[in-house]
Amino acid sequence: MFFFFVGGLEQQVRQVLKSRAGRCIACGSRADLVDYDKVLKLFFVPVWRWPGKQPVMYCNDCKLFFPQSLTPPPPSMDGVPDVLRCQFCRREVDGDFRFCPFCGNAL
């Protein structure tokens, strides 16, 4: 007799506390400060959810949750343009782009 467990534990955003609060540590794009829930799923159906202990940063682009203590400081607003660095070709790209104009990969 075999038993297969199809389920898992994941994190889901409950509420955005501060939009664009910092930068992602993986891809460098904008990250939000969020409250989150941990969700237990069985057969892809949420069964049980409980709140996270403290707010964390969440990147909308790469879907990464990470502690606020690891966040680089947000860029200053003294007229300096908001610049990202492409994770593939490492060139600086304007912060309004979703795709790198040099190599075409998603930012």
UniProtKB/TrEMBL annotation:
<dbReference type="InterPro" id="IPR053281">
    <property type="entry name" value="Double_zinc_ribbon"/>
</dbReference>
<protein>
    <recommendedName>
        <fullName>Zinc-ribbon 15 domain-containing protein</fullName>
    </recommendedName>
</protein>
<dbReference type="Pfam" id="PF17032">
    <property type="entry name" value="Zn_ribbon_15"/>
</dbReference>
<feature type="domain" description="Zinc-ribbon 15">
    <location>
        <begin position="23"/>
        <end position="104"/>
    </location>
</feature>
<dbReference type="InterPro" id="IPR031493">
    <property type="entry name" value="Zinc_ribbon_15"/>
</dbReference>
